[in-house]
Design goal:
With 103 residues, the chain is mostly helical. 71% of the residues lie in helices and 0% in strands. It starts with a helix and ends with a helix.
Length: 103
């Protein structure tokens, strides 16, 4: 496999896990077969360019996040859970940003 396909495979698995989305759910949201998603994850093929924007929208990531090498970004299980919970509670996101001095 090429480097970009390796990155897509790794990053797609990572962000699906981070969002808590199954391959079946993801396929349904994209209106593609589950085998298409499985093939992306296994690196047998890659999503076409039209699909990339939809993937990024659903996973709430950038194209750079999908195609890039996030080799120096690793999250603990606790950090992943914090991110998942943060995304599930938009009514609390502003308060969290204020507490962290982000806003």
């Amino acid at each position: 496999m090429g480097e970009i396909r390796d990155n897509v495979t790794r990053n797609l698995c990572y962000y699906l896990s981070l969002k808590g989305i199954s391959q079946k759910e993801f396929a349904k949201k994209l209106s593609v077969s589950q085998s298409a998603v499985t093939n992306w994850i296994k690196g047998k093929n890659s999503p076409d360019i039209e699909m990339v924007a939809q993937i990024c929208d659903i996973l709430e990531i950038s194209v750079v996040d999908l195609f890039g090498t996030n080799s120096n970004i690793y999250y603990t299980d606790e950090e992943k859970e914090i991110i998942r919970q943060y995304r599930k509670k938009p009514e609390l996101q502003n308060a969290v940003r204020i507490l962290l001095g982000i806003k």
